[in-house]
Write a structure and sequence with these properties.
- Keywords: Coiled coil.
- With 285 residues, the chain is mainly α.
- It has one domain.
- Helix 1 runs antiparallel to helix 3.
- The longest helix has 122 residues.
- The two termini are 31 Å apart.
Amino acid sequence: MDDKWRRRYDALASNRDDNADAVRRLSRKCSRAEEEARDKEGQEEMRRRRREEELVAQVQGLTLERTELKKQLEGQPDALLTDADLDGKAKALAEKERAHKRREDALEALQCNVALRTYEVEEYGRQKQKEAEERLTKAQRASEDAREREMQVGAREAALFKEEADQKEREESIREREESLREREGLLRTRAEELASEVENAESRLRERESAVERYESELEAHRSRVEGELTQSKERVERTLREKLEEIKKRKEEANKDIMRRKKAFRSEVVERTLREKLEEIKK
């Protein structure tokens, strides 16, 4: 009996040692599995963090792109779907603004030229009128001088018979001068009429130019209103497109976070299940 129980005790002790060794091996395997699980979990966490950083960088890049687009599109072109189209539209609007500025400069130069031409015509008319008045005054003075000389000749006629012929010649000369003055006066009147006609024509042309300028200003105002309306609609469409893109990015980020959490949970459950399976297999062995 004693030998039997001793053998059984020895067998149990041997089994106990074997079981202890198995437990130690299983414990070491569990420790290694836990370390591997922690390493994998750390690697997965690092990958998740890198993915989150990439998503944040993408969101920041899109936000910066949106800010730059807003800066470029403030008071500018229609909202389009590509950067190339936006750049082209911005260049086209800038060219329109430059053309508009050139038209305004041309209009201002035209107004200056019209004002200068009007002043020149008025100054020319005043100058010619002044010259005509001076010539008429000279003619009147010459006529008065001639009459005075005639009176002097009449007073001296009895005493100065010799000068009668000279007086007649002077009278003839005076008559010729008077005729010349009358002819000049007629020419002056004709010239004055021509100047008046030219002034009237210039005023008519000036009125036509003023009406053309008014029409151009009305067309320019209509064009400006139309461009401002188009720019307002463009700005609204761009802002609406950017809001939709931001909403889409937010949704993608949320879906990515949810996917990361699902994968993390699935990985943890898989590691735990595999570890338990290995432990059970070791125990069974």
